[in-house]
Amino acid sequence: MAYKLPGFIPEELRQLARFIPKTGWEVIDWKPMLGSMRTVSWRYVSRRGVDKLAAQTREVASHVRLVASPDDVTPLVDIGDKRQLRQSGDDILRLYFSQWLVAQGMFIDLRLARFGVDDAGLLFTPNGLWIQLRPDFREGMIALYRSFYSSDDDAFDKALRQMGMLRGDLSPAAEDELKNLLFQHFGIDQRSQRFSIDAFKASFDELFAFFVSHQYKLHSDFVFVGFYLITLYLTLEQLGQSHNVRKICADVLLSPGSGQ
User: What is the pTM of this model?
Assistant: First the structure.
């Protein structure tokens, strides 16, 4: 069935919700989803909690300056130097991975308009689109990314179960299918990766098709992480550079100080 989003949801959030396939709305657990949508929409309008979360994010993302209203900066769309574009994209990826380490929440809008550069480097102007994930899901995502660096399949399985993605009633064939889909969706196997929003959307659609066929009920955490990734892909595709995602992830999530 098609689901009409409530009128209180701002356009900035509606733009992201359009990436969910129509059939995908059937497998979303609407009680937590509507609660999260209402909370995030209010934060967007009021900017409640933005400054406090920005201060907490600065502690793990020192490579980017979080500012309320940047002055005298160059928008990323105006940069012509490929080396500077690649560096900006690398820094945005570091911000993406760094935010997983912030238990208090993450800013999910990494679209291009939120960034700029000056002589000192990259600036990020967060808006009120931020979400605090359940601890098990957030820690499971960190464990998932870390599991990509080991040959231990048990670590991968454990991370998915911690996130609530791998149900106990799935057949072995369905488990393998889902694990392959999730690896394609979240995987960071490439050392020179170019980002394509069309490829991400295709992966998103395949995942939702699996969830529909196996009658999942998805918590809002999964959907909002999808929104987070969508904004990352949109920005990095627009920058048009290749990035060593594997190294950047390791630098952030495997460093000695990257505890949960």
Answer: 0.93
Per residue, what are the HEC states of the chain?
CCCCCCCCCCHHHHHHHCCCCHHHHHHECHHHHHHHHHHHHHHHHHCCCHHHHHHHHHCCCCCCEECCCCCCCEEHHHCCCHHHHHHHHHHHHHHHHHHHHCCCCEECCCCHHHEEEECCEEEECCCCCEECCCHHHHHHHHHHHHHCCCCCHHHHHHHHHHHCCCCCCCCHHHHHHHHHHHHHHHCCCCCCECCCHHHHHHHHHHHHHHHHHCCCCECHHHHHHHHHHHHHHHHHHHHCCCECHHHHHHHHHCCCCCCC
pLDDT tens, residue by residue, 218-254: 999 999 999 999 999 999 999 999 999 989 999 999 8
220 CB-near residues (< 8 Å, 6+ apart): 28, 29, 32, 33, 35, 36, 37
